[in-house]
Amino acid sequence: MSTASGSTLLEVAGLCRSFDGVFAVREVDLAVAPGELRAVIGPNGAGKSTLFGLIGGQLRADAGTVVYDGDRIDRLPAHRRARTGIAVVFQGARVFAGMTVLENVMVGAHADTRAGFFSAVTRLGRHRADERAIAPTARECLARTGLSDWADRPAEALPLGQQRVVQVARALCGNPRLLLLDEPASGLRAAEREALVNLIAELRAEGLTMLLVEHDVAFVTRLADRVTVLDLGRVIAEGTPAEIRADEKVVAAYLGTEVPA
Ligand SMILES: Nc1ncnc2c1ncn2[C@@H]1O[C@H](COP(=O)(O)OP(=O)(O)OP(=O)(O)O)[C@@H](O)[C@H]1O
After folding, report:
1. Ligand 1: which atom is nearest the Cα of residue 47?
2. φ, ψ of residue 177 in degrees (nearest 5)
3. Which fold does the domain 93-175 belong to in CATH?
4. Does the structure show a pLDDT above 80 at 45?
5. Which of 112, 127, 148, 173 lies 20 to 30 angstroms, CA to CA, from 26?
6. Is 164 in the pocket of ligand 1 (CB under 6 A)?
7. Chain-wide mean pLDDT for the chain?
8. Distance of alpha carbon 240 from alpha carbon 227, whole angstroms
9. Residue nearest to atom 23 of ligand 1 (CA)
10. 1-85+179-261 has which CATH code?
């Protein structure tokens, strides 16, 4: 099937997923243009991570479609979606201990899924020819993310903020056209968040299409072209950051947690 127009890279329609009979994601529609940075926000339990998994392929939809670059991908396993050019940075993902920063990033060229990372880790070192081919790309990704000086350090020795940047560099190593980020700023200190905001802004300026799932409204409203707001699994609002901040339904959904001015 080929439904996406030239102005849409990712098109989600009527997407539903329930757990134990309760909807986590309900009739969600979402269309992301090439080069767009789309944020998905919502209070705890709104369905953000579920939607993320339905797009990345870690979860299967009960109903609805996910069309990427004109093709339906909702029945594909995660590693096949990755091969089409969708890269994922998972919530709370950790670097591989016992590997350098460069090696961690090189895994991204092999790895298609979280499970795939482990086979990729064991493959690294066994296929020296592959390594020689991938290393220049990985070094480019390190340069792009400001990590070049850390290339040969043990990844687990880096501060958490830079470990998060390693995850982004690893995702970039697969040369994605769509980058999915699930709460990349969680647990980071203010200066680390600032560095991450700047990095994501640079990737946006380079034209990379991104879907950023985030609990922190202030973080995304500084970055996003458009914001989709979920509450109880449904889209309750979509618009520019300014429109979203002024939306009464959004303010009500976040009642008590304060939508920043
Ligand atoms: N694997 C699962 N099994 C059962 N219920 C689940 C599962 N995953 C999610 N849910 C439920 O689906 C709903 C949406 O959860 P989800 O994690 O997608 O929300 P979220 O917006 O990402 O929340 P948070 O901001 O707290 O991470 C919640 O009610 C959650 O309890």
Report:
1. 18
2. -105, -20
3. Rossmann fold (3.40.50)
4. yes
5. 112
6. no
7. 88
8. 6
9. 45
10. 3.40.50.300
Quote the pLDDT of residue 251. 85
By the 8 A CB rule, do 82 and 175 touch?
Answer: no
Residue ranges per domain, the chain?
1-85+179-261, 93-175
Q: What is the pLDDT of residue 125?
A: 52
Residue nearest (by alpha carbon) to ligand 1 atom 5: 19
- On the question of a common fold for 1-85+179-261 and 93-175, the answer reads yes
pLDDT reported for residue 130: 65
Residue with tokens 């993310």, as numbered in its chain: 145
pLDDT at site 4: 45
Q: How confident is the model at residue 6 (pLDDT cuts 50, 70, 90)?
A: low
Q: What digits encode the pLDDT tens for the residues 165-198?
A: 999 999 999 999 999 999 999 999 999 999 999 9
Q: How many residues does the chain have?
A: 261
41 lines ligand 1 (CB under 6 A): no
Show Cβ contacts of residue 68 under 8 Å, excluding neighbours closer than 6 positions: 4, 9, 10, 11, 81, 84, 85, 86, 178
Residue ID of nearest Cα to ligand 1 atom 25: 44
